[in-house]
Amino acid sequence: MAARREDVEDIHDEGNDMLDAEEVGEEVPSGDEGDVAMDSDNEEIQLQNDSIAYFDEHADSVFAIAQHPHPPFADRHRWLRKVTPMMRQARVIYSGAQPRESTQLDAIFAVEGHTDSINTLAFTLPNGDFLVSGGLDGRLRAYTATVAPPNATFKFLAEAQEVPEINWIAPCPSSDYPNTIALGASDNSVWVYTIDPASDAQNPLQLVNTFWLHTAPCTAGAWTPDGSLLATVAEDSSLYVWDVWGLAASKGVVEANGQTVVSLTGADSRFEVEGGLYSIAVEPNGAYLAVGGAGGQIRIVSLPRLASAAQGQRGRQGKGARARPTGGQPGQQTTLLAAGSVDGSIVVFDATRRFAVRKNLIGAHEDFSVVKVEFVKGTWLLTSCGMDGVVRRWDLRGGAANPNAAGAANSGLVKEWKGHLGDGEGGGVLGFVQGATGERVITAGDDGVVLVFEA
To answer: Which UniProt keywords apply (predicted)?
Structure first.
């Protein structure tokens, strides 16, 4: 069953991240920027390295990076996992000391057992009890993570191999369903596991459910903030929002198939995105989600509310996001959606103003693809990385009144960090983590290097 037409809005661009209305207002001073000097005539490249530490044991591209979720641990002690196709293993590194220039970090653990590239990693929620890796060999491998800062130990727990390739892993945020993860595969399937060695030591990877409605590889997935629903997209331009735990069915809002609360496919011309869907983000209150496609299009889809009746009444005050006053300006109400594109631009939409363009960062990463955008929690700051090898941070309050204004001064650029090769040829930044406060940014480099930057 397709969702109602009035539940779908269409805006432009792809790749996205959400900032909650409650998470704005913190002021951050501007930093200095620097340029990379190059001399192509003699083929010498002068690299600017702004990092305070690095990790260079990988022999090839670092495809994924993940950070432990426990606040005291994540804020003070950086534990990262990175993956390379040639080494076919992931490593965990530690940097708990005071920042020092060009400090080499050592690995404390290597994830082995995959026979092809590891391209997705995650710690389980809410406490990071387990670390899971997914590979192009179809293996899902789980490790116990015993964390007692400044120490941590990891031990192999279990493995499952049910699909040809694993494309993504997303941990469920609900404390009612701890240590649960979802994954999407190349055979169009979606799998949900709960890791619980206490209930069954012989089978700690317990299968919760599988879903098979996509007709092409499942490319991305995200849970609603309360962990009650799971949204997934695929190359066939389909979106399904799954009732994993049966909560929607108990409230009578599940669709006729008994599995989903939203089903949208390319059969609906208003929803179809030529080339498929590849990114997804859920609004922090769970009121709607955004999906981005290969054709540079974004679709906004409303979600049913499974919470209390009182919360439902508040949700009907406005279509889409439920915005509340925050500390940015007196009486300000803001929920933002940031989208990065393959043309190097980042567009920021104001969800409280019918998704009007708040800022268009043209050439945010020159002409290279934007790989990731992520808000620093509780602030107006947006961090981005791209195939130009640069990480940048933007203050979305500042800049010119014209949302299309060009130039760093007008765009709200706060700081940029360089150190990767860049230029799109084996030197881009394929991901980053920035903790809860954004004080440090740690990258996954296509050049096989992980860099630690101080904000």
So the answer is: Repeat, WD repeat
Give the SS3 label for residue 378.
Answer: coil
Contact 55, 81 (CB under 8 A): no
Instruction: Give residue-wise pLDDT tens across range 148-174.
Output: 877 889 999 999 999 999 999 999 999
Residue 168, strand partner residues: 184
What is the distance between the alpha carbons of residues 235 and 435, in angstroms, rounded to a whole number?
31
Which residue from 244, 186, 182, 238 is spatially nearest to 214, judged by alpha carbons? 238
- The two tokens of residue 402 are 């014209």
Q: How far apart are CA 93 and CA 78, in angstroms?
A: 7
What type of residue sits at position 101?
E
Helices (H), 164-211: none
* 440 domain residue, yes or no: yes
Per-residue pLDDT reduced to its tens digit, 236-256: 999 999 999 999 999 999 999
Distance CA 242, CA 212 (A): 11
How is the beta sheet containing 180-185 ordered, strand by strand? 166-171, 180-185, 190-195, 205-211
- Flag whether 165 is in a domain: no
CATH of the domain at 413: 2.130.10.10
Q: What is d(CA 238, CA 72) in angstroms, rounded to the nearest whole number? A: 39
- What SS3 state is found at 157? strand
Domain assignment present for residue 54? The answer is: no
Report the C-alpha gap between 128 and 126 in whole angstroms: 6
How many domains are contained in the chain? 1
Contact 301, 3 (CB under 8 A): yes
Whether the CB-CB separation of 37 and 46 falls below 8 Å is answered with: yes
The pTM for the full model equals: 0.81
Structural domain contains residue 403? yes
Question: Whats the size of the chain, residue-wise?
Answer: 455
